[in-house]
Amino acid sequence: MEKSEIMKLYHDWDSAVISALSQYVDKFHKPWPVYGPHEVELIDYCIKKNVSIDDLSPNDLVYKKYNPDSIIY
To answer: Residues 32, 53: contact at Cβ < 8 Å?
Structure first.
């Protein structure tokens, strides 16, 4: 999937989130979950750790902050 196709998924999201997602897509070449959290802190955290959201440990503290066990997407 091309970056332009991926970025179309986020056309009506907040501009700060879109900017962070653009960097995420550049780094990992895959989309961020549309029904997941839209938090810039979490996106930036994945980029800095060099780990995609899919590969973050469920026990990671930042992951847990935005994905509490009680939330079902």
So the answer is: yes
Determine the Cα–Cα distance for residues 30 and 62; give it in Å rounded to an integer. Answer: 21
Q: Where on the phi/psi map is residue 57: left (φ > 0), alpha (ψ -120 to 50), or beta?
A: beta
**8 Å CB contact between 53 and 42:** yes
**CA-CA distance, 4 to 55, in Å (whole number)?**
23
Rounded distance, CA 45 to CA 62, Å? 8
| pLDDT tens-digit readout, 20-50 | 999 999 999 999 999 889 999 999 999 999 9
Prediction pTM value:
0.89
Q: Residues 6 or more apart from 23 whose CB is under 8 A from it? A: 43, 47
